[in-house]
Each structure stands twice: as C-alpha cells, then as structure tokens.
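In practice, a research group might receive sequence data for several interacting partners and want a quick structural hypothesis before committing to experiments. The following worked case mirrors that situation: the sequences arrive first, and a predicted assembly follows.
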Amino acid sequence: MDNFLILKTLDKAARRIENTEALENISGDILSSKSIVLNFPSFMDGRAYSQARRLRRAGYKGTLIAAGDVRADQARQYARVGFSAIFSKNNFDGAISQNDLTRFTDHYQSSASDEQSIYHKRFPNTAAKESGGGAF
Amino acid sequence: MTIAIPKRPLRRRVKKEKKNYNLALTANHLFSGKVVYFTGSGWANLLHDAALSLDGDSLISQAQNYIKNESFVGLELIKIDKLYNQLIPLTTKEKIRLSGPSIIYN
Amino acid sequence: MYQYDAFDHEILQKRIEEFKSQVKRRLSGELSEEEFKPLRLMNGVYLQLHAYMLRIAIPYGTFSSDQMRKFAHIARKYDRGYGHFTTRQNIQYNWPRLTDIPTILEELAEVELHAIQTSGNCIRNTTADQLAGVAKHEIADPRGYAEIIRQWSTFHPEFTYLPRKFKIAITGDTHDRAAIRFHDIGLEIVKNKSQEIGFKVLVGGGLGRTPIIGTVIKEFLPEKHLLSYLEAILRAYNLDGRRDNKYKARIKILVQETGIETYRTTVEQEWKEILKEGRTDLPLNAQIRILEHFTLPKYSHKGVTSYNFSDFYAADSDFARWINHNMHDHKIENYAAVTISLKPLKGIPGDISAEQMDGIASLADLCSLGEIRATHEQNLVFPHVFKDDLPALWRDLEKIGLATANHGLISDIIACPGLDYCALANARSIPIAQEIAQRFDDPERMEEIGELKIKVSGCINACAHHHVGHIGILGVDKKGVEAYQLMLGGSADEKASIGKITGASFDAEEIIDAVEATVDLYLTLRQDNERFIDTYNRVGMAPFKEVLYG
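A structural hypothesis for the assembly, expressed as tokens:
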C-alpha cells in the first residue's frame, strides 16, 4: 500500500473495463495492458472489487485504477483487492485516504499483495501455501 | 469546504393528490436524533410551532437556509389537519412520531 | 466461548477510532449526510422515527454474564433503561444520541462486543442454533464455524458493497432452530459415510417481498473448505447479482433467475480457482485454535441446589408447566437448557429492562456457567443448568418477571418494532402481539392450543418472519390507516413452508378476532394431538377462509 496513488488525470491509453463484465476469462491482451481502469458508477456498486480481485489473480501486473464514485473512506478496500491507484476529479481528501490505508495493521484476510494475514501471525511457522484467511 | 445539498433530501415525498393538504416539514436533529418541526425561521420541538404550507417544495427550499452543515436530517413532509387551532397529523405514523411509541415499556 | 486475542482486540480498537473520526467529521459538516449514512449503517446506526437506533451483534447468539451486565449499563447510562433482542441475535437500543455512540462502542469493546456490519449491504452477523453445543442429538457445535465466518467476513474488502445485505445461518442439528432455509446461505453440519464433518450448503432462501425456501447448492462440503466455498458464492453474487432494482437484489432472485444448476456451475468454477490459489481456507492449526474455544465446559456441579428436581416438579404445577414448555434436553445427564421467555403478558416481545438484565447476569453466573444465549425467537436461553437448580432458578426468575411458561405457545409471539419505532413500518406490530397474548392469557387455554407460532411484521421487509409463522400477520398501510393481512401455514424449521394469505386484510381490532376464530376452528378440526400447523396442512385453507370471510 506504500505506492498507492491518487491520480488527478487519467492516461488516455488506459484500458477501461465496464463493471458488467464478470471477467471469468481474461485474455492475454488485457493482461498486457499497462493500465486498466475499473469503474464504480456509485460507490455502493461494489462489482469492481471482485473484478480487481480476478485481474490480479490472473496475473495482471500493471496499474489498476479505481474510477467513478470513489471515496476517501474506502481507500483501504481499493488497495486490498488489488487497486494501485484512485482517479477522482473531485477534491479527494488525501489525508483521510492515507489514514484509511494505514489504520489497520492486521487483517483477517490475506490481501492481493503478499502481506500476512492474522492467521500467519497467529501461527508464524505456517507454510505460505496454507496460510489462508480469505485470499486477500 | 462547502457542502452540497444532497439531490434527494427526502426519505419519501408525499405524492401530489387532488385534495390540497396543509403540509408541515419534520426532521431529526443530527446530534440527538430528536424529532423537530420546521417553523419557517428555524426548528422547534412542538408541532404547534410548525409552519404550514400547501406547497411542500417551498417549505423544503425555505428550510435549506436553516440546515447549516446538514445538522437536521431525515426531512419529511407530513399532512396536517387543522382543527380548532390544533395541529393534528393525518396519518398514524405521524401521530406516533409526534407523541412517541404508543406502547410504553413497563 | 470465544475469547479475543491481541489481534481481535487491536482490530476492534482501530475500528472504533475510525468510526469516531467519521462521526466527528459528520458533526463538523466535513462529511455530508449522503456520505455519512452508509458509513454509520455499516456500524449498525440507523435513524428511526424518533431517534437513532444502535444495533449490536451477539455473534451466533452466545454471550456471557459480563456482556449482559454491559448491556444493562449501556441501557441505563446512554438509553432509556431497556434494550430489545431482535430476530437475528442482535440487541438494539432505541434512543442513543449519535454523539454518544463512539463512547458506547468503546464500552462494548471492553467486553469483546461490537456493532460491526450489523447493517449495510455486507455480510451480517452469522446466526446459529440457540442450543448449539448442548442439544442432545446435535452432530457438532456450529459456533466455532460461525466464529470462523465472523472473522473472515469482518471488513472483507471485496464484500462490503454487495448488491444487498447478506445473512448466513448455521445449525449442527437436523432439527432446525436457526431457520437456515430462509437465509442467503444456510449451513447444516452433516457427516459423510466416512464420518467426516462437513456442511450441507443451502443458498437463496429469504423472506421480505419475495419469500423463497433455500435450495441445496452442495450436499457435502468438507469442513476445511468452508471459507473458500463461501467466497466463491459471494464473488459470483457480487458480480452477477442484480443492482438495477433494490427489491430484486438479494441472492435469492439471482438463483431464481439463473436457475440453481447454472448458478452452481458458476460457483464451482470459481471455487476451483480459489482452491488453486490455496490462500482462503484456514490452515488446520488456525481452525483448531478457534474450534477449541467451543469445547464442552466442565460440568462439575457444586451448586446452589436446595431442591430435588423431580419432587419439586411433582409438587408444584406452575413449575411443572414452566418445565414442560421451557426446558430442553441436554447432552449431559442431569443437565438441561432452559428458555427464558421475553414474552411476559403485557410485555413487549424481546424487550428487557436494565434491572432484568442484571438479574439474568447474576442468575447465569449462579446456574448457567455464566453463559447466556439469544434466540431468533427473541427469547434467552440458559444452556447449562443442573436440573436440581431449576426450582431455585424458576423462583428467582419469577421475582424479576421472567418466568413466563410460554415457550412455543400462542403468546410466544415474534414481533418487529413496527410503526412504534421504525421509519419503514406501515403499521404497529407490538400492540397486536400484546392484544393476542392478552386474548389467550389463560394458561390452560394456551396449553390446550399447544405449539403455535405467531409472527407479526409491520411491513413487507418481514423482520418478524411473518411468512414462516404458523399464523403470520403483516401490517399494511391503507391510506394512512393500519391494516393487517393474515397468513396461515408457514414454518421456519426443517419442514420449511411459506404461509398463504387468507384474503382481504383486517383492521387492528378485527385481526385479533380473526386470530381467535382461526384458533377456535383449529381446536374443533384437530385430530389426536395435532399441532395447529399439522391440522392446517391436513385440511388446507378452505375451512379457515370459510370461518373468516363466510
């Protein structure tokens, strides 16, 4: 989460994927995109969280941008499902999102990045492969 | 930071009906949740002090001047019957809002 | 019972800090109401008709005497001296000030309680059989698995903005006391031929506008794959569930519209992917550590005993009546579980005063190993009572007005808060429940009628589960006046069924007469020891319609 970005402009070359696509099968074309934008038409519409999750699982390594009705109080969630950036035209409160990103040091689920879940920490000797707690 | 008035401040607007009702505007205080009524120049605890109007939209727009930082929430228009100078809400729901739960705990 | 470790405490503290800052930003105007509302809802804070309401989770319905004392303290200090137990193993306070809520949450955290995800479109409190761990014929205690789900679902980053709320219930017994067939996901602990523990998984049950009985999506899910399979169900729902219409957004509609076969295929595909990653299911040692919290306590009774159970039972007919209705068989010989009815005559279903809470806490320490359960029928249970302690317990409960011998009877009515408190309601529920209880006040008449479950909801959202009452009552709004529909033949247990509407609605007075006419007809029609629901299932709606509408 150290490199989580708040973008004021959007690279025109970024690939947009609508949130009606479940991304059950992800093409090599998508995986090789430099940056991908996923959309939150309303912040209550959480489909893009699962899309992000699937993209990262499929091995997507580029910049993953949350756009639309994104909010400072959700920054932690964006980061934990695999987003690496937020794009917002609104006056986005960076201090709030920074607090949100760093507030919790431990989680019951492993995140998209390789951070350790509470279950790793409860059992430090557990092999990574069986370290569970929600694949996030 | 300026606060935008939310697009839809009402839980539910009273549908326009043929008969014209006197309307009052109720809300809850943000800090305490207490029921208040719009007086035309502020908010009061008593329905007796409420401003009445046949035009609900105008009540709502007047009230916007008295909602600094949205310190009153859950705005709702209610139908009022005026009888011998007493204001009486028409629906059971509004009667209960006015006088509290109809059942009393012990 | 589960005991928090340092990680659990830390997470709770951070959450309180976060909510505190959100409330502060709202009060200062930095956050608009539109921005704040979903944030407060995610922490169980509603705005009702007269005031805020705070809903606190009692995970899988198990709590301690110390936690009960804290509920009493909160009722006294921040509310109006009482609390309300709901149908989903939560407790609600009806009058807190928004400005006090962060402090209330701090107080709750001291005893490992919280309001996390008690509202909002997220995974809610997982509910369980109130006799979990002690029921005589239980296959396994479901609460350890419910705790595993609680941890996994707490702040799950992907599943906080689902199409709609999501409720999971679990039972370890074939007799279903947790209404698992009417939850988004229902889990029943089963054993396979090799005697291994697993889950029968049901999906897409629910009440509300469109009552549907859950469908089996997996006959046997091995215990170790609980979380990966739940995650597959949730992910498929999050992506495919309808978001165009609030009333069609629950998973039951998705399952109905796509068909269980197609939905199952989607889930199984996703599940395979999750298993390949191998990061979701708990490692065995972590699972064991959680389950260990729920091993049977040591029953080495020293006790307060001053009576012989059998002698007292034979001598006191009031006590015998209480035992007959409120006592439940227990795994351990000479022990019992007992229902403490929160439906006294003239009471409010589920309500309990701070003094009664304190009384219950002391009695739980004295004769239930300090443990209490909340039930989805809005009652409490003492799960570990030495039988010879029951007479003394009963006498002490009488002193605080909580020895009502009506569990499962006509006056043990589930009622939602209704129009007396709730901004969504169309009609009042509580006065209807009170009137019915009053009408059937005579204990002998109640006993003659036998098991009869009445459930009264004040609106279509069905918080009181009216569709699955043997007799269900639904409040509707007729041009600002309260009216009530009558439903017959619902059942929430393993023989799940959805009640049918009798016909035109009744006004508040008529509905009480209608219930009485229905019950009187049942008494003339029943054969042998048939319960109301058995008679209804045998004779159908027609005779009841005849007596109600002529």
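Before designing any experiment, note the following. Residues 6-27 of chain C form the longest helix (22 residues). Chain C touches chain A through 48 residues (CB under 8 Å).
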